[in-house]
């Protein structure tokens, strides 16, 4: 424990008798002082003893430190001596190693010629056996030494190539020399075949290494490729079988041959030129002339599966330019089919599209008419609609729009598939041109033969404005044509644009699309004369329902209606047409058509009101009618139309205002800007206008 002086003194006083710490004892300071003095002396003696011990230990430590330093110096000297000996030994070892290397070079220089001489002697011995026509050596008679025999035959064959012509003839004329090379080569190939069937990879590698220097090495590779394919194509999916086979051979070929990439490339070439080419021919030639649809589907499917197989084979090592190698193989299979692909595609698309349209019109029991689209026809139609002159009978479509979502979906689906085939099967340089031809087919059959024909038929079916039949089916045609064109535009962006986006054909396609839109907009603008028909219907309603007594009742005090029956029917009719227009069109076209209808609607009511004379109560009823018309005008959501009816409502106030207040009302905010003749014409409609007092006030 740490030393604390106060506690130490307290313990010392407690142990001393008379120290005052024990209970019952008297405090004796002298005794306590004596105890303290004695204890101090004891502590001093202890301190001196400990100090002497410390000095002794310090002296001993210094002595041992000197001895240790001396020992370290001796060890350093010994280490220096040992290092010098190590350097001398290293130099000696280097000297000896140099001598040994020199001696090894000398021995090799002597041994190499000796070995060559021994080999030459053996070859001369074998050569003599061939010249003598009798093969006695064990290497030729023992079938287990076929590898050594092959090496000897190969060397003798090379030597024979360098012999003079006479000696070569003599060598080759011996009974066994001519065929031994070939026989041995056949034996090696047979041995390789047997090893492959047994699955002995090491033996296959050994024999292949021997055959590498023979002329029949390529035949060995052919045998290997042939046997690899035995039993590999048993399923219906030849492409999957080919991928599995190549995957398996890729793992094995590196263990057998010294040039695995060449062997694997030759296997793939054999698969493409034999198996795949035969399979493709069988699948395509069956439908090439009889069924264009199935032919195109098969061609697309086979080409896609072939390119997918090629992508899988790209993972293997096939040499330096495997991309070009595989592309040439694919081209060799499909070149005869791809050369005239687009002609087959266009022919099929034309026939198929015509059949889809004809089947639809047949289902409607409709015989397509030849409707003129030139300027004269348009002019006649405009004149007939705007002047109500019967320049030619309108066509009764019986409510049929001659537009079909099913037909459109079928045409777009056929074209979509054609675009997909075009993308896959066309040469990159021909792709934009081919895609444009397919697009032209779509324009011809969807836009011209279907949509444009329906618009022309719809235009021809619009009745004149004085017709009593409210045939407004053209709005249904507009609605369906608008929906169809959105689908057409979506396919243009989704499937055609990616094929032509980086080619000059892009501007040509955009211009063609623009021309189609403008052509349809012209016909839709011509169809705006449907509004004349609507206005004509309103006129018929007003003529049939509005009576002169409505605004000049016989009993002024007994009028119970809030607005006239003609007003109710006209407003109901207008609301239906507004809803129909909103449903049939979209975008700014809605506002444009509603504005035109609203202005004509206002003009009709304005002119209609000026046909009657108004009593005081009749004027109030006219104001109520106009208020109802104004509510109807709010459905248009066109500020101009609402403003026109607000002004008309203000004009109707002139029919009931007191004569003294006429000038004040005419100078109001809504009427102040109007021509005075207009104001005067409304004032003249009052039944009391001829009174001198009213005429005087207004003048």
Please write out the topology.
Layout: H1 5-15, H2 29-132, H3 138-141, H4 146-161, H5 165-172, H6 177-198, H7 201-211, H8 217-228, H9 238-256, H10 260-285, H11 292-313, H12 322-338, H13 341-363, H14 375-387, H15 405-425, H16 431-460, H17 474-500, H18 505-526, H19 530-545, H20 565-584, H21 588-609, H22 616-634, H23 639-652, H24 662-666, H25 676-683, H26 692-698
The count of helical stretches stands at 26
Question: Radius of gyration, rounded?
Answer: 58 Å
Q: Give the number of DSSP strands.
A: 0
What's the order of the H and E elements?
HHHHHHHHHHHHHHHHHHHHHHHHHH
Structural class, from secondary structure content?
A: mainly alpha
CATH topology of one domain: Methane Monooxygenase Hydroxylase, Chain G, domain 1
Summed up, what is this model?
With 699 residues, the chain is an all-alpha fold. It has 26 helices and no strands. It is flat and about 155 Å long.
3D architecture notes:
The structure is a single chain. This protein has 699 residues and is mostly helical. Among the domains are: 7-19 and 27-132; 399-539; 548-697, Methane Monooxygenase Hydroxylase, Chain G, domain 1. Helices cover 74% and strands 0% of the residues. It is built from 26 helices and no strands. Helix 4 (146-161) runs antiparallel to helix 6 (177-198), helix 6 runs antiparallel to helix 7 (201-211) and helix 17 packs parallel to helix 20 (565-584). The radius of gyration is 58 Å and the shape is flat.
Essential attributes:
Methane Monooxygenase Hydroxylase, Chain G, domain 1, mainly alpha, 74% helix, 699 residues
């Amino acid at each position: 424990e740490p030393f604390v002086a106060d506690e130490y003194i307290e313990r010392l006083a407690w142990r001393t008798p008379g120290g005052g710490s024990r209970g019952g004892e008297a405090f004796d300071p002298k005794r306590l002082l004596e105890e303290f003095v004695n204890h101090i002396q004891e502590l001093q003696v202890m301190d001196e003893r400990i100090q002497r011990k410390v000095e002794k230990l310090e002296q001993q430590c210094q002595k041992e430190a000197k001895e240790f330093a001396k020992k370290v110096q001796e060890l350093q000297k010994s280490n220096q001596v040992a290092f010098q000996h190590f350097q001398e030994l290293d130099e000696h070892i280097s000297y000896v190693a140099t001598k040994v290397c020199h001696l090894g070079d000398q021995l090799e220089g002597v041994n190499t010629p000796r070995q060559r001489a021994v080999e030459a002697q053996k070859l001369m011995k074998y050569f003599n056996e061939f010249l003598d026509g009798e093969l006695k050596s064990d290497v030729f008679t023992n079938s287990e030494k076929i590898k050594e025999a092959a090496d000897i035959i190969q060397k003798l064959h090379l030597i024979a190539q360098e012999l003079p012509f006479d000696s070569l003839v003599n060598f080759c004329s011996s009974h066994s020399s001519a065929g031994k090379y070939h026989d041995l080569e056949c034996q090696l190939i047979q041995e390789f075949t047997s090893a492959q069937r047994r699955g002995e990879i090491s033996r296959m590698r050994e024999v292949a290494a021997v055959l590498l220097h023979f002329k029949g090495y390529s035949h060995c590779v052919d045998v290997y490729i042939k046997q690899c394919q035995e039993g590999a194509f048993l399923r219906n999916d030849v492409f999957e079988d080919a991928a599995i086979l190549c995957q398996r051979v890729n793992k094995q070929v590196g263990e057998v041959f010294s040039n695995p990439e060449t062997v694997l490339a030759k296997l793939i070439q054999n698969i493409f030129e034999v198996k795949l080419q035969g399979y493709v021919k069988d699948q395509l030639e069956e439908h090439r002339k009889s069924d264009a649809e199935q032919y195109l589907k098969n061609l697309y499917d086979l080409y896609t599966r072939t390119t997918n197989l090629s992508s899988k084979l790209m993972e293997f090592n096939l040499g330096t330019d495997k991309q070009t190698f595989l592309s040439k193989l694919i081209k060799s299979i499909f070149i005869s089919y791809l050369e005239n692909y687009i002609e087959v595609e266009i022919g099929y698309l034309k026939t198929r599209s015509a059949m889809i349209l004809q089947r639809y019109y047949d289902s409607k029991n409709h015989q397509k008419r030849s409707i003129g689209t030139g300027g004269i026809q348009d002019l006649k139609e405009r004149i007939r609609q705007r002047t109500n002159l019967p320049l030619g009978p309108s066509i009764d479509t019986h409510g049929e729009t001659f537009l079909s979502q099913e037909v459109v979906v079928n045409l777009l689906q056929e074209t979509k598939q054609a675009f997909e085939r075009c993308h896959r099967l066309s040469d990159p340089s021909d792709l934009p041109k081919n895609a444009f031809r397919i697009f032209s087919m779509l324009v011809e059959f969807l836009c011209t033969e279907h949509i444009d024909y329906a618009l022309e038929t719809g235009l021809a079916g619009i009745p004149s404005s004085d017709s009593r039949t409210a045939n407004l089916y053209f709005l249904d045609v507009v609605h369906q044509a608008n929906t169809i064109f959105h689908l057409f535009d979506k396919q243009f962006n989704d499937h055609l644009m990616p094929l032509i986006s980086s080619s000059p054909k892009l501007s040509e396609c955009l211009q063609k699309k623009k021309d189609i839109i403008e052509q349809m907009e012209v016909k839709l603008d011509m169809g705006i004369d449907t509004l004349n028909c609507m206005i004509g219907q309103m006129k018929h309603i007003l003529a049939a329902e509005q009576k002169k007594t409505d605004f000049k009742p016989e009993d002024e005090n007994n009028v119970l209606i809030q607005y006239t029956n003609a007003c109710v029917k006209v407003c109901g009719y207008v609301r239906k047409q507004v809803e129909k227009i909103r449903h049939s069109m979209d975008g700014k076209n809605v506002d444009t058509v509603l504005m035109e209808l609203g202005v004509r609607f206002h003009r009709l009511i304005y002119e209609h009101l000026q046909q009657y004379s108004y009593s005081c109560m009749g004027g109030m009823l006219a104001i109520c009618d106009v208020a109802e018309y104004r509510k109807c005008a709010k459905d248009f959501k066109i500020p101009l139309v609402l403003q026109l009816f607000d002004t008309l409502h203000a004009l109707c106030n002139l029919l009931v205002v007191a004569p003294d207040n006429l000038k004040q009302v005419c100078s109001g905010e809504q009427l102040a800007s109007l021509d005075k003749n207009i104001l005067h014409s409304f004032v003249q409609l009052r039944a009391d206008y001829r009174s001198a007092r009213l005429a005087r006030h207004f003048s």
